[in-house]
Amino acid sequence: MALKMEPKNDLDFIMKNLLAGGVAGMCAKTAVAPLDRIKILLQAQSVHYKHHGVFGGLSAIVRQESLFALYKGNGAQMVRIFPYAATQFTSFEIYKKYLSVLNIPMVRHGDKFIAGAAAGVTAVTLTYPLDTIRARLAFQITGEHRYTGIAHTAVTMFRTEGGIRALYRGFVPTMVGMIPYAGFSFYCFESLKYLCMKYLPTTLCRKCERNTGGLVLTVPGKLVCGGLAGAAAQSVSYPLDVTRRRMQLACMDPNTAKFGAGMIKTLTLIYRENGITKGLYRGMSINYLRAIPMVATSFSTYELMKQLLHLDTGMKVA
């Protein structure tokens, strides 16, 4: 009889989840880094690219800057994403574990959403300054560099823009947006995973006696569940993502400084000046192009890493 996939102790469980989550985040973000950069430029309406679409913008970056410019700011992204993803996935597992023992009906039915939202908030709080730095570096155009690297960006912002508050500019809309985004991401993935194991055990799953329930998602199954979860979560939280970017990049240009005043004012300004489609949901098409493969890759890599590290990726199927 096969042994269950059980970690040796709590520390072993945490360390393995941190590694699995960090690797998953790095793989996912590297895969969509070019789309991530053009999304930032479109969201913030860079004067150089605001009249371009997704593919026109990507082509213009290569033509006007270089092929490597598609990955501008990715160094800061990698420095941020490993601890962010590691913290998020590990926090989710811990919160889910403790919420499962609570005998509260409302919590019991929404434990995946609550655990996911709490995990997202935990991860963002710890790594937010690196996201601001990465956005500043990605927004720069060749020949107009204000910052030379991660450390220089952090020091310059700290000295000239108001100290630690500058590094956390846009933090409130990020928190507000992270709750539905992370909550729906994990909730949808776990729910779709359950449905696949219950109703499609021979199509998108395969047998794994060491797992709870005796099943594990196949790679296509992981990708389908992750992609659909990413699409659902982004649809709900995208306007707050646009608001966050506008606030983070407000001080890069005197004409956009007005967007650094606060979350509600920034949301209102974006809506008044550009409306819903061209303002609050600007860049949404590219966001689907990047979010679906990114979240699919992230969840798939995380599940694969857990399997390699002998952690349980199954669930009870009634």
UniProtKB/TrEMBL annotation:
<keyword id="KW-0999">Mitochondrion inner membrane</keyword>
<dbReference type="InterPro" id="IPR002167">
    <property type="entry name" value="GDC-like"/>
</dbReference>
<feature type="repeat" description="Solcar">
    <location>
        <begin position="107"/>
        <end position="195"/>
    </location>
</feature>
<dbReference type="GO" id="GO:0055085">
    <property type="term" value="P:transmembrane transport"/>
</dbReference>
<keyword id="KW-0812">Transmembrane</keyword>
<feature type="repeat" description="Solcar">
    <location>
        <begin position="12"/>
        <end position="98"/>
    </location>
</feature>
<comment type="similarity">
    <text>Belongs to the mitochondrial carrier (TC 2.A.29) family.</text>
</comment>
<keyword id="KW-0813">Transport</keyword>
<dbReference type="InterPro" id="IPR023395">
    <property type="entry name" value="MCP_dom_sf"/>
</dbReference>
<dbReference type="InterPro" id="IPR018108">
    <property type="entry name" value="MCP_transmembrane"/>
</dbReference>
<dbReference type="Pfam" id="PF00153">
    <property type="entry name" value="Mito_carr"/>
</dbReference>
<keyword id="KW-0677">Repeat</keyword>
<keyword id="KW-0472">Membrane</keyword>
<dbReference type="InterPro" id="IPR002067">
    <property type="entry name" value="MCP"/>
</dbReference>
<keyword id="KW-0496">Mitochondrion</keyword>
<dbReference type="GO" id="GO:0005743">
    <property type="term" value="C:mitochondrial inner membrane"/>
</dbReference>
<protein>
    <recommendedName>
        <fullName>Graves disease carrier protein</fullName>
    </recommendedName>
</protein>
<feature type="repeat" description="Solcar">
    <location>
        <begin position="221"/>
        <end position="308"/>
    </location>
</feature>
